[in-house]
Amino acid sequence: MLQRVREASVSVAGVQIGAIGSGLLVLLCAERGDTESHAERMLAKILKLRIFADDADKMNRSVQDVGGGLLVVSQFTLAADTSSGNRPGFSSAATPADGERLYNFFVHKARTAHGNVETGQFAANMQVALVNDGPVTIPLRIDPVS
After folding, report:
1. 10 Å Cβ neighbour count for 65?
2. Which of 18, 41, 47, 70 could form a disulfide with 118 if both were Cys (CB 3.0 to 4.6 A apart)?
């Protein structure tokens, strides 16, 4: 899930651990079966997605075009299944070990490709603050290559 933001930050136990100005808040969820290839394709899509305004106020620029930041926050709850009952199920989420491995892989690749990358803390109870710009919120899913 992507949110175009004017600013965003993440804190753990009252201490800010990551913050960006204008850019994208990336809420990242690894699901069972996701691979490094999924992470690489997701990052490529995020960096090239044209959701920032150009001079004509049209969504025509990417986060790279505008020099925006990325704040990458792990969020396994995006894998919630609410189709049955009132308590969400998370059986489609990756195991904690796989989720952390893929999250760290994604962050490493993002820092290599983009540079302006801040993060949350995997598996921590985090507080995320943001000013959504637009608002623009984009669900983003990368399906397996067939």
Report:
1. 13
2. 18
In a domain, 143, yes or no: no
Q: Is 75 an annotated catalytic residue?
A: yes
Give yes or no: 77 in active site.
Answer: yes
Residue 106 is a catalytic residue: no
The domain tally of the chain equals 1
| Per-residue pLDDT reduced to its tens digit, 74-116 | 999 999 999 999 999 999 999 999 999 999 999 999 999 998 9
Identify the active-site residue in 16, 35, 52, 76.
76
What range defines the domain where residue 35 resides?
Answer: 2-134
Q: Return the CATH number at 123.
A: 3.50.80.10
For 51, residues 6+ apart whose C-beta sits below 8 A from its C-beta are 2, 4, 59, 62, 136, 138
